[in-house]
Amino acid sequence: MKTLEEKLGQMTQSVGADIVAIGTTMVKEPVEGLIRAARIGSMIQVGKPEEMASRIRRFQKIAVEETRLGIPLLFSQDVIHGFETVFPIPLACSSSFDMQLIQKAAQIAAKEATICGINYLYSPMVDIAHDPRWGRVAEGAGEDPYLASVMASAIVKG
Predict the structure, then answer these.
(1) Are 81 and 131 in contact (CB under 8 A)?
(2) Which of 97, 106, 127, 132 could pair covalently with 155 via S-S, beta carbons 3.0-4.6 A apart?
(3) Residue 157, exposed/middle/buried by CB under 10 A (0-12, 13-18, 19+)?
(4) By three-state DSSP, how is residue 33 classified?
């Protein structure tokens, strides 16, 4: 049975290695200690792929072998237009209307991210953009809900 602290830890996402977990004080805490204390359930990862893969393996080993319940961590990243291989931004891809190509690009990005240990992505972004001043317009398919849904489907399949 999980304790309340372990349940809260499962809902806490750290923004990376050796920095504070979201919602904690601004005091720098080594993330390994937070993992061992079951105070983190997921982590956003950034950096070079080879460094990221090594770091993820180290953190996952701690979570599985050195915590009471051994629950694996989730590792995430914003993979909006590729991982190592960079593709056009989603707004540009949507103007191609080529769902097979969009699916193939997503498949490549997913394979590259998976190799590094990333096991969930913040993609596709399916917000419908109605105001060009919004800072995340480029991450979606534009203002057509049908096109956004077809594109999101292709990305998820990829």
Answers:
(1) no
(2) 106
(3) exposed
(4) helix
CA-wise closest residue to 8 among 19, 20, 24, 27: 24
Cβ–Cβ < 8 Å for 45, 52: yes
Kindly list the strands in the beta sheet with 13-14, ordered across the sheet, starting from the edge strand earlier in the chain.
13-14, 42-44, 74-77, 120-121
pLDDT at 23: 54
Query: Three-state SS for 84?
Result: coil
User: 131-143 burial string, b = 16+ CB within 10 Å, else e?
Assistant: eeeeeebbbbbbe
Q: Shortest CA distance to 121 belongs to which of 45, 58, 53? A: 45
- For the record, the structure tokens of 69 come out as 């319940």
Conformation bin of residue 102: beta by default, left when phi > 0, alpha when psi is -120 to 50: alpha
Would the CA dihedral through 30, 36, 40, 45 be positive or negative? positive
Whether this model's pTM surpasses 0.85: no
- Residuewise pLDDT in 10s, the chain (158 residues): 789 999 999 998 887 655 554 555 545 567 888 899 999 999 988 888 888 899 899 999 999 999 999 999 999 988 999 999 999 999 999 999 999 999 999 999 999 999 999 998 889 999 998 888 888 899 999 999 999 999 999 999 99
